[in-house]
Amino acid sequence: MPKFDILTFPDPRLRKKARPVEQVDASIGRLVDDLLETMYAAPGVGLAATQVNVPLRVLVIDISEERDNPVCLINPTIVSSAGAEQMEEGCLSVPGFFEMVTRSERIRVEALDRNGDPLSLDADGLLAVCIQHEIDHLDGKLFVDHISALKRQRIRRKLEKEQRHPAPVVQQRRDVI
Ligand code: GNR
Ligand code: NI
């Protein structure tokens, strides 16, 4: 069982700006492992610490078919970007909704890896989209902020209604002898 539950829009905790990691120590290593476990179980192609109510600038991504190529970025910054591309996005924090979002087509990201060593990564396609989507989470932004206010409000209302009337949990009946 993954350690974390994933927050759902419009939870205000998804709107907090995450703070940088000061020291990549063993506790950050454990956080990365727990994020990966939660992402794979969901399943999703990325997860930001913000989504599990940990307000630190840490994200994980795995866009491989085999789910065996985890990427971890700590304190990521996009240092250059080019082009524009539309892709249909979803989000584990906005379950059941998918909308076209326009983002940069190619990006260069600098970050620390899980050992605390600096890394520079050039990305395009789905990887570039995911990195931008996850860094948005660290800044308190969601993909629904990139669509029309009308669509965003419809999504918010539907998710609020679902959260008021959650799908019932089936209870195991226990016969009294
Ligand atoms: O699993 C996910 N799929 C996805 C598809 C298109 C664009 C972005 C994503 S990220 C999402 C997982 C997630 O919510 N990460 O924050
Ligand atoms: Ni997301």
Describe this structure in words.
It is a single chain. It is built from three helices and seven strands, in the order αβββββββαα. The protein has helices at 26-41, 125-138, 149-164; strands at 46-48, 58-61, 71-82, 85-89, 99-103, 106-112, 118-124. It has one domain: Alpha-Beta Complex (Peptide Deformylase). By secondary structure, it is α+β, with helices and mostly antiparallel strands. The model has no long low-confidence stretch (mean pLDDT 96). The protein is globular. The structure holds ligand GNR and nickel (II) ion. The site of ligand GNR has 16 residues, from β1 and α2.
Topology:
Elements: H1 26-41, E1 46-48, E2 58-61, E3 71-82, E4 85-89, E5 99-103, E6 106-112, E7 118-124, H2 125-138, H3 149-164
Antiparallel strand pairs: 1-2, 2-3, 3-6, 4-5, 6-7
This protein binds ligand GNR and nickel (II) ion.
The site of ligand GNR has 16 residues, from strand 1 and helix 2.
Short description:
The protein has 177 residues and is an alpha+beta fold.
The CATH superfamily is known as: Peptide deformylase
CATH C-level: Alpha Beta
CATH topology-level name: Peptide Deformylase
Approximately how much helix is present in the residues?
Answer: 25-40%
Radius of gyration: 17 Å
What is the residue-averaged pLDDT?
A: 96
The backbone outline, from C-alpha atoms, is globular
Provide the β-strand percentage band. 15-25%
How many E-type strands?
Answer: 7
Instruction: Identify the bound ligands.
Output: ligand GNR, nickel (II) ion
Strand order of the largest sheet: 1-2-3-6-7
Major β-sheet profile: 5 strands, antiparallel
H and E order: HEEEEEEEHH
Q: Tally the structural domains.
A: 1
Tally of individual helices: 3
Distance between the termini: 32 Å
* CATH level-two architecture: Alpha-Beta Complex
Given helix and strand content, the structural type is alpha+beta
Low-pLDDT segments: none
